[in-house]
From TrEMBL:
This is Xylanolytic transcriptional activator regulatory domain-containing protein. PANTHER family: REGULATORY PROTEIN GAL4. The lineage of its organism: Eukaryota, Fungi, Dikarya, Ascomycota, Pezizomycotina. Residues 269-281 have a biased composition (Low complexity). The keyword Zinc does not apply. Residues 489-498 have a biased composition (Basic residues). It comes from the Eukaryota.
């Protein structure tokens, strides 16, 4: 239980960074005493309030609108694929030539696409629209997609796909403007936490419900003969559902909330795009969502089988780790061994989801090492492997974001990169503090992550908060390193002083009190609480206070 933004106790699931940091802070405070970092209990985030937006006076110039639409499809289709580029381009043409003829559904989707693009790329402040403009677009689109005008009034399934597209876009927009709780409500279930939104939001949390009503979650079972007749529409229906699944898994895991889409409610066929006529002149992009779907399926298994359990058989994470290590889409060695090979935005998103899934899987076992939990020799070896994987994946995640940032691919806050960068930096700081597979470059990478987060602050208030949290932790880590260096110097000096007068004693009468620690020890010399092997040899018991 942690304090929320209104100073109320609120339950936070184990899969969140908040829960991880709660245990890190408690362990540090017990061992080294209080500090500014351990005393900082406000990990609940920021209040989520929609700004009061004035009436839109003028629209964007045609060139700006075109570039924003191009930016949208270049930056989001590897995470969500909700609208067809051809349909948006047609709406743009109609909007520029005769805006009064653009129908409400097309206008709603069009405005939301532009709002998301503006949230991800504010542009040059001298030539870009005001920061409120994206919220103005969102407010108009939300009014067009009000429940009394859409699903409840529709008579045909084909007509109600666009409200589902709109709800998914609204969820992604809220995620892009650092309002994850609000995004979660549009996507899945309603949990009024840190929420102060307008009256229209009372219809939130409808996306999964609408998708269930359409039967999209059952795949081909709900697609009777010649319904829908348009093959492109069938593909779009599947992609909207797949995008909704990715949003649900990522939002629920990062917030510690229940999944809106249960594993026993959907058909596997719903995640496979229906067969479409092959065209030698056109490359289908429907498979771009396959790696995110695979990662989010694994996220669901991790949360349900590790974070939701008090005891975990060590074979469970080992099997999951084997799957992730063998998955071809999450192999990223070429980006770190070849300096001139720069990943695209789509590749960055795919790999960041892979990094996040690996970190989520291995972090509970890394935390066991950090807290000095006893384990039998056989279990400890496997915990070591998972801990090392957690650290190495965190390091590569920071490196990936750095390369994207310096290549101007992530020059503004990206919702996926923002959260994964923070999670990875926390692991690197924890690794350095406890000397768990720590490397010299960890602190410099954390400083780079803090610099990127501070740069993103103009487009995401959470980026500044994350940077300040990391800075407090970094100060404790550097202080710990100084204390450790001083102690080691004192011990070396004391050892030298004691050795000279003892040369007259028989060797059998003297034994050094210093026992060298193995170089790859999980727990630092400061944390010598490992005793007898008390853990169950077949099960790893997670900490009672959270993990």
């Amino acid at each position: 239980m942690l304090l929320d933004c209104q100073n109320r106790l609120s339950f936070v699931g184990r899969s969140t960074a908040h829960s991880f940091m709660h245990h890190i802070r408690n362990t540090i405070e017990k061992h080294d005493g209080p500090s500014e970092f351990t005393a900082d209990s406000n990990w609940s985030g920021l209040p989520e309030r929609l700004p009061v937006t004035p009436r839109m006076q003028s629209f964007l110039p045609p060139s700006t609108t075109t570039s924003l639409i191009e930016f949208y499809f270049n930056h989001v289709r590897s995470f969500i694929d909700i609208v067809n580029p051809e349909a948006v381009s047609l709406t743009l043409y109609r909007f520029q030539n005769n805006p009064n003829e653009v129908q409400g559904p097309d206008r709603c989707i069009f405005y939301l696409v532009l709002a998301v693009a503006l949230a991800l790329d504010p542009g040059d402040s001298a030539h870009s629209p005001s920061p409120e403009f994206k919220h103005q677009l969102f407010a108009i689109a939300e009014g067009l997609a009000h429940p009394t005008r859409t699903f409840e009034k529709s008579q045909h399934h084909d007509d109600v796909l666009w409200p589902l597209q709109a709800l998914a876009l609204m969820s992604f927009f809220m995620l892009s403007v650092s309002m994850r709780n609000t995004a979660y409500e549009y996507c899945g279930k309603s949990h009024h936490i840190c929420m102060q939104t307008n009256e229209a939001n009372k219809g939130s949390g409808r996306a999964v419900r609408v998708a269930y009503a359409l039967g999209i979650h059952r795949g081909h079972e709900s697609e009777i003969n010649q319904f829908p007749a348009n093959e492109e529409l069938r593909v779009l229906r599947r992609n909207v559902w797949r995008s909704l699944f990715v949003l649900d898994r990522f939002l629920a895991a990062s917030l510690g909330r229940p999944f809106a889409i249960s594993d026993n409610e959907y058909s596997e066929s719903s995640f496979r795009p229906p067969n479409r006529p092959s065209s030698p002149n056109k490359v289908s992009k429907r498979d771009m969502l396959d790696p995110p779907i695979d990662a989010c399926k694994m996220i669901g298994h991790i949360v349900n089988n590790i974070y939701s359990c008090d005891k975990v058989a060590i074979e469970v994470p080992n099997q999951m780790l084997g799957y992730l290590e063998a998955h071809p889409s999450f192999q990223n060695n070429e980006f770190f061994t070849t300096s001139d090979l720069m990943p695209t935005v789509s590749q960055i998103h795919i790999h960041l989801l892979g990094f996040y899934t690996n970190i989520l899987l291995c972090r509970p076992f890394f935390l066991l090492s950090f807290m000095g939990t006893n384990a039998s020799d056989g279990i400890e070896t496997q915990i070591n492997r998972l801990s090392e994987r957690c650290v190495s994946q965190s390091l590569q995640a920071v490196e990936m974001v750095k390369r994207g940032f310096h290549a101007n691919l992530l020059c503004h806050s990206d919702p996926l990169a923002l959260y994964v960068l923070f999670e990875a930096a926390l692991v690197l700081l924890s690794s350095t503090y406890a000397d768990i597979y720590a490397r010299e470059e960890h602190l410099s990478l954390v400083k780079d992550a803090m610099f990127i987060l501070k740069t993103w602050y103009t487009s995401s208030p959470y980026a500044g908060q994350f940077a300040s949290k990391l800075d407090l932790f970094r100060q404790d880590v550097e202080h710990q390193k100084q204390v450790k260096a001083t102690r080691q110097a004192s011990r070396r000096q004391a050892h030298k002083v004691k050795r000279e007068p003892m040369t007259t004693y028989e060797p059998s009468q003297y034994r050094s009190p210093f026992h060298p620690m193995p170089r790859d020890s999980l727990v630092s010399p400061r944390d010598s609480r490992r005793g007898s092997a008390t853990a169950n040899h077949a099960m790893v018991k997670q900490e009672a206070d959270g993990y």
